[in-house]
């Protein structure tokens, strides 16, 4: 009897001591990572256009002389912009020498920026009447389609597929795609980077060209911007970057451990200013401005200021091709 | 062990059960009545039933004592853990606040262009140091949080590395610095904050569970008390019928002791439980709301800078600002007028001025408004809000801890006295019954 009592008593005591042991909480759970959305492929090239170095470059010819500043034709896109009191331009703030934010002054400057400032000068008589809207590579076409910018000057390659979605000015610079690697890399071409990871900005023609090297074992990785690729490169997550020579020159200038593979130009990248598809009058106007700039030396002055130090003396400005309506 | 019952029952101990030593030879006393066995005989007839009741009421009384002690231990433990978990929750939210504060500094400093103001940089460094110290503290305080806190620490290292790289590049005048800043911000938003949200919600759940558990101890006390009262009363009635004496005083005293313990204990526990509920609905709720308001406010401030950094394509960040500002308003509405922080409405107005300038296309003016530190700039008003909300938060969270501590202190000491009370009641019951049992000898 005594033993039973003791057993019952000790069982109860044990119960009493352990029943409140709720201080052992379940471990806090690590939340799951969200899945990144996959990008959409661009539409196929239209029926009346093949990328042959001529067809896609045809823009809409300007009619007559440019209207003087402050006197935009009534009902035109330019008049609308004039009433808006500023030209909204989609640009890059991180491509050194094309469009980048100067960390010291905070101002955005470069070759592309000069182009839109000249367009603003032609409308307002003042190159500073520009609202610089910083956009990433994949945002360029959607921004134009939504009409949230009037013009895009962001090292944008003219091609047939994009003509389906937006309009382009005549060519204002002929770039070419090159590859940037570590200074001590033995690679002499992009194909030599077999088994390595190479970065290109998402939604860019550079990425389309890079994807052609997949069969040869080159792995592609993307970032939102050109500089995003440089960060991946510096962090060792990418072994190389492929992109326009203009952009790569700016990146190499920021990283002494990077070099650009010379003598291999994967493709021609003709730059055009992107304009919403419906605004044909504005395309003509911008083409008129570009013709003036190329003729009176403003184009060369800008090239000399931004691109000559890294890309060598100025070539002849690209000849405009017209014929589109 | 072979002796029969002869000693006074107060120290009476029952004989060994026959099953006790297996294989050992049976003691000789079992010869007297071979059919029933010694145990059966011992419980036979009226004195046998008395013995059985004696054992039953004594055991039940001791069990009551243990149950009462357990009930109080449980309530006291729940209060203690509510206090500890509240402290942990405040700590985790302080980590959250420090991180978003650091990020707001970093993004705002970036807008300035050139070198960041030394005071802002210092605030950034201090915030990160605070977060880092609190992570170590929190990991010690709550082992269940250790894995997530470890992960959080890893993301902080990455974040700080990216910020320093952004600074170094900025110092060289290289635009890539801005990309590192963007990546750092993404690290914080995508890697650190989800971990912090998980920590906050886990600790909120723990606090809720403990607050809910404060009153649960009463179940032990009431069930134990009712059962033992029932046994004692039934024994008294049975005894009264058999012995024709109306009141057995020791048994009655034992029953009263159980009843008094139940009433005092129950009242004490109900009091503690209602204090805890008051704290939960008042000071704890206020501390929680203030803490959430601060986090949302810093989130808004970061979004303000990011909208400007994105320069024209920051619509998403401005949406983020609006959501965060709504959260601040909602949380501040929960805090009563007393202790409500100042400066928030002023800051909202200055934010609107910034947005107006930017939407007009006047980015430079918007930036000047956003980075200025003059009398009526956004930074000044936000600083006012930061200081005054931090002070209110400290007051309310200290008050919550204090109230929970007081509730614990006010509990009657039944956690320790429970067992002695049970034993005393058992002794009284045994004494009372053995008086009657003596008459049968």
Can you describe what's shown?
- In chain A, the strands form five sheets. In chain A, strands 9, 10, 11, 12, 13 and 14 form a six-stranded mixed sheet that branches.
- Chain A has eleven helices and 16 strands.
- By secondary structure, chain A is α/β, with parallel strands linked by helices.
- Chain A has two domains: 55-172 and 272-322, Periplasmic binding protein-like II (D-Maltodextrin-Binding Protein, domain 2, 3-Layer(aba) Sandwich); 176-268, Periplasmic binding protein-like II (D-Maltodextrin-Binding Protein, domain 2, 3-Layer(aba) Sandwich).
- Chain A has helices spanning 2-19, 77-83, 111-124, 140-145, 160-163, 205-211, 226-234, 245-254, 280-296, 298-306, 308-311; strands spanning 58-59, 87-91, 94-95, 99-101, 108-109, 130-134, 151-153, 167-168, 173-182, 197-201, 219-223, 240-244, 258-260, 267-271, 274-275, 321-322.
- Helix content of chain A is 32%, strand content 19%.
- Chain B is mainly α.
- Chain B has one domain.
- Chain B has helices spanning 37-42, 45-112, 118-141, 146-171, 176-213, 217-243, 249-310, 315-334, 344-359, 363-371, 378-409, 414-438.
- In chain B, helix 7 runs antiparallel to helix 11 (378-409) and helix 9 runs antiparallel to helix 10.
- The longest helix of chain B is centred in the first third of the chain and has 68 residues, at 45-112.
- Chain B is elongated and about 105 Å long.
- Chain B starts with 36 loop residues before the first helix and ends with a helix.
- The chains are: A alpha/beta (325), B mainly alpha (441).
- The interface between A and B is large, with 58 and 59 residues.
